[in-house]
């Protein structure tokens, strides 16, 4: 599992971004990839699955 911090998450639209702790790159996250509710600045663990438009965070849960 990877670790990161929620940079932005719009609950109404169901998507946001996580900043990966190691690479400092943004990873897209969709509501379907969440195991826990998340908010900006939450520390999370996640896996990555390649999507149509790049990497997507899945199995996202609070650390």
From TrEMBL:
A Pfam family the protein falls into: CSD
Regions crossing the membrane: none
Keyword match Phosphoprotein: no
Protein localization: Cytoplasm
Domain of life from the UniProt record: Bacteria
One function term, GO molecular function aspect: nucleic acid binding
Gene Ontology annotations for the cellular component aspect, listed alphabetically: cytosol
Protein keywords: Cytoplasm
Name of the protein described by the UniProt record: CspA family cold shock protein
Provenance organism: Mongoliibacter ruber
């Amino acid at each position: 599992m990877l670790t990161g911090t929620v940079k932005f998450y719009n609950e109404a639209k169901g998507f946001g971004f996580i900043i990966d702790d190691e690479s400092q790159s943004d990873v897209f996250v969709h509501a379907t990839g969440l195991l826990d509710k998340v908010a900006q600045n939450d520390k999370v663990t996640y896996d990555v699955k390649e999507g149509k438009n790049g990497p997507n965070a899945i199995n996202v849960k609070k650390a």
